[in-house]
Design a protein that fits this description.
Blueprint lengths: L1 E6 L3 H13 L4 E7 L2 H11 L3 E5 L7 H10 L5 E7 L3 H9 L4 E5 L3 H32 L15 E9 L35 E6 L5 E8 L6 H14 L6 E5 L9 H15 L7 E3 L10 H10 L5 H17 L4 H14 L11 H10 L3 H12 L16 H15 L6 H8 L3 H12 L3 H19 L5 H7 L5 H12 L3 H13 L6
Parallel strand pairs: 1-2, 1-3, 3-4, 4-5, 9-10
Antiparallel strand pairs: 6-8, 6-9, 7-8
Helix pairs in contact: 5-7, 8-10, 9-12, 11-12, 13-15, 14-15, 16-18, 16-19, 17-18
Length: about 500
Amino acid sequence: MHSIVLIEDEPPTLFMVKDLIEALDLGFEVIGYAFNGEDGEATVRELKPDIVITDIKMPAKDGLSLIGDMTAEGFETEWIILSGYADFEYAVLALRNGVKDYILKPVDPSALQTLFEHIAEKLTRKKMEVEAAYLYRQLHSSDRCSAPSGLRHEGVYTPVLITAGNLVDSMHDGLHAGRHVFGQPTETDFGHFGVVPFAKSWIVQGYSKSHQVLLLATDSPKDVHVRQAVEQWVTEKNSDSEARINALIGAPFSDIHMFSERVQNLYRSLKQWILIGQSHVFTAGMPVVTFENSAEWVYKCSRLTSQSYTAFRNQLLQWERQWQEQNYPQAFVELLMTKIADALPNKAGAMHIQVGDIQELLAASVSQTEAVERFANLAGAAFGEEPLGSKRAGPLSDVVESIEAYLTMNYFLPVSYDSLQERFGYHKDYLSYLFRQHKGISPNKYITMLRVENAKRILRDIGELTLKETAERVGYEDPLYFSRVFKNVTGLSPSTFREQFRGDEKGGDVIA
């Protein structure tokens, strides 16, 4: 319910407006009223309503003074003025002072309904945005402030972790195959999510752009509609995306402060169940996946590298088909790749394939076959194979320096491995390997480093820019995602970094 305080010095008008509003049945409740501005101010301060409807000309304190004083104090509410035709000049002045809506006397019931339908939509969206922001802070920071009133649900909450493509631990700017599936979660009212209505629901950006968290408020912990709605939503998303959608429905809980902990548990569980390139809707409580022949596979993979590269590649691709047939999840395939990488020979000064390289392959792949083929291509360097793709003349170190110069000049653009492959003439997997061999860091992480370093410079030197403006200047469309990347690298949020720099600057110290 949206709460209202009415301030009007004519009792018949006040009670008529009260009755009309409550008869609309749009979720509004008059929780208090007063017959002059002074009493009205005290009532508003005590009750803190969502909306204040006030006359302009009143005893003790007029409506414009009331609005001006409380607005100057930072009191947050929606102000609506009651105005007769004779008070039109005052109404114009109120509108100039930030009042958005007015009710004209004598009150027209149809006009009142139109106005409050608009206000109901606006207030609902505003409250949902506040609630979604709270959930985002719960998920991405240690902030444990009190929950907004709209999140104090009498039933239960059901969390759902939804991912596009493979679930990996790092951010992978511009690389993850599922990074564009969801987009920025701007919608906040998902009250009719899927095919059935829920009391409320929220979408929150996950730990990377490739996954999101859906939170459903339901009346019962065994709501049969939850799975139905999630399955339909996943089916619809899969029809528009090459990266397969997976969802894990968590166990219901009643305390909203458990939200972050429950999502972290879902993340760990889904990594154990997700199948590369396939789509499923999982339910919490499933048994942990175990493999009776896991030790045998680890041993076979460690022995795989003792043969020629051609035999290695052919055997690996043959095994990949077996892994698909036996429904080995992403976590197990990732483990086997790691064991193979650990056993790879080291010819021609090849650099060891690290977990980060494997995660990048998984992030960029939409099928298990693609992921394994790219891993086999990358492993070729360890066998002394020639670079993949069309080879250019000149030392490879010159190619790396050219890539570095290009990234330094274009870090704020949507650079991808495909574009680097096209520009520099080497296969994208080999380019990544080559760059890390010479620079000790992948192109993906190098771009992130450039963006964060330039963001730090902007925050120090151009302090008046908003978070969104700063994010856009360094290549991020989503300011919340930028904030998470920045904190992931520096340990500080952009705002904290800026405040800390200003504090150190006043004290005579400068951040390097």
